[in-house]
Specification:
Elements lengths: L2 H21 L112 E9 L2 E10 L2 E9 L4 E14 L3 E14 L10 H5 L4 E11 L8 E13 L16 E15 L4 E12 L7 E12 L2
Antiparallel strand pairs: 1-2, 1-10, 2-3, 3-4, 4-5, 5-6, 6-7, 7-8, 8-9, 9-10
Length: about 325
């Protein structure tokens, strides 16, 4: 058969091709470390760090023999030393005895600055000290039997002049002029001569009146009441001022009537006298304002009037400037 001869010829024909392929250079092996020089800008690829060769085999670890100082416990398999027992706990202290609670400390406030000194109030309308030159004062009283209002002005250092009005609740109205001249003025005591008077207007005529305005007031058509007033005041700027006034009221009746038909013709005018006693006080409540309280009585000589008429009044007085 021809099969062996053909096989030999085929092998001879393939021999040159195999030898030529064997002579062709094979591509270099790929490096285990990739080239990453491209990731660093401005650095050429030739300057890339060389790849480090990986160790093929691990070096065996050499076991150091134990030293003589370690003893037999350093050998493998030796038992661990027994730990020392922990120290006993310290003795517990006895509980503290209950103590009284300490009071909370109060917050100490800063001391307030002292108040400014008070301005003195030493001038009124009913005492013995005058207002002084260029000063004015007003006052009002409500009581029995009069309602009064008045004002004073200091024309001189020791002389005050003023005007006022007294009324028995409309039954009698009297316009009065007044003057006060200070005779003695010390730090605590004052004494003054006072006089006031005016013309009274009555609601009813005398022949139709029985225990009316004339009986209550003791006044007639014209009335003048001179007298003395003394007052006292302490050293405090707002000390109250008690005063005592004694006056002689002279009432001039310009139309007297005769109630007894057998007494003849009445005179053209008649004078009656009374003694007025007033005890009161002024209580300063500010630099210029004071409360006023007064009580007293009128001792009369006219037979048709009450022998004694009590008086009482309360009010307020103030110096304007």
């Amino acid at each position: 058969m021809r099969f062996p001869g053909l096989l030999s010829l085929s092998l001879l024909a393939l021999a040159p091709a195999l030898s030529a392929r064997a002579q062709t250079s094979s591509p270099p092996p790929r490096s285990a470390t990739p080239d990453e020089s491209w990731s660093e800008p401005g650095k050429p690829a030739s300057e890339a760090p060389p790849a480090q060769a990986e160790p093929n085999e691990e070096e065996p670890t050499r076991v150091q023999p134990p030293s003589e100082s370690d003893g037999w416990e350093s050998f493998p398999g030796a038992s661990d030393p027994v730990p020392a027992p922990p120290p006993p706990p310290p003795p517990r202290a006895p509980p503290p005895l209950p103590t009284e609670p300490t009071p909370a400390r109060r917050r100490v406030k800063a001391p307030r600055p002292p108040p400014p000194p008070q301005a003195p109030n030493r001038y009124g309308l009913y005492g013995g000290r005058s207002l002084g030159s260029g000063h004015a004062g007003v006052g009002m009283e409500l009581g029995f039997p009069f309602v009064s209002a008045r004002g004073l002005y200091g024309v001189l250092e020791h002389l005050d002049l003023g005007l006022g009005v007294d009324t028995v609740y409309g039954l009698m109205t009297e316009l009065r002029a007044s003057a006060r001249f200070t005779l003695l003025d010390s730090d605590n005591v004052s004494l003054a001569f006072v006089v006031d008077g005016g013309h009274a207007f009555f609601l009813r005529p005398p022949d139709t009146e029985d225990k009316g305005a004339r009986y209550l007031s003791g006044r007639r058509d014209w009335n003048v009441a001179p007298g003395l007033v003394t007052s006292f005041q302490g050293d405090s700027p707002r000390a109250w001022r008690p005063y005592l006034g004694v006056r002689a009221l002279m009432a001039f009746d310009m139309d007297p009537i005769q109630k007894d038909p057998l007494s003849g013709m009445p005179p053209a005018w008649k004078l009656d006298a009374s003694v007025l006693v007033r005890l009161g006080a002024e209580f300063p409540v500010g630099e210029k304002t004071s409360y006023a309280v007064s009580f007293g009585g009128d001792f009369r000589s006219r037979s048709s009037d009450a022998e004694f008429m009590p008086t009482l009044s309360v009010g307020v007085v103030s110096t304007l400037f």
